[in-house]
Amino acid sequence: MSNQAEFYHELLGQTKALINDESDIIANMANISALLFERLADVNWVGFYRLIDGELVLGPFQGKVACIRIPVGKGVCGTCSFTGEVQRISDVHQFDGHIACDASSNAELVVPVKIAGKVIAILDIDSTVFDRFNLEDEQGIVSIVQAFEQNITAMDNA
Fold first, then answer.
1. What is the CATH number of the domain that holds 145?
2. Which residues are CB-neighbours of 41 under 8 A, at least 6 positions away?
3. Domain ranges, residue 141
4. Domains identified in the chain, total number
């Protein structure tokens, strides 16, 4: 196991410990954002946008003041919510229609949060470092989002 894989394995365990017995989605989003912001190197923003009435609305986050509403299909976050696919962008300035909430952000990783196959939110991670996120970062963050999705589903069925 590489150091990066070990790091994400540990981070997944910490995430599960934080959210395991908590049913409040907003509280879990807040703690996941705080944990990732604290543990990930070279990130300047980590947070969630919730899909409400057909648009992304700012949720719990860590970092500078952010855009409050993002239309589905617009920018990296809106594209993720529209396609339901991870967006790993090495240079956001080359992304057509990029929405710059923080002009110092250069790379972005956005992962959809899905329940029953439907996007309900996205997790957005920004970095000032170009090409900050690799495939191992993507896989690690996806595993954390999957644990969050499982928590939501388990709590809904409890």
1. 3.30.450.40
2. none
3. 3-156
4. 1
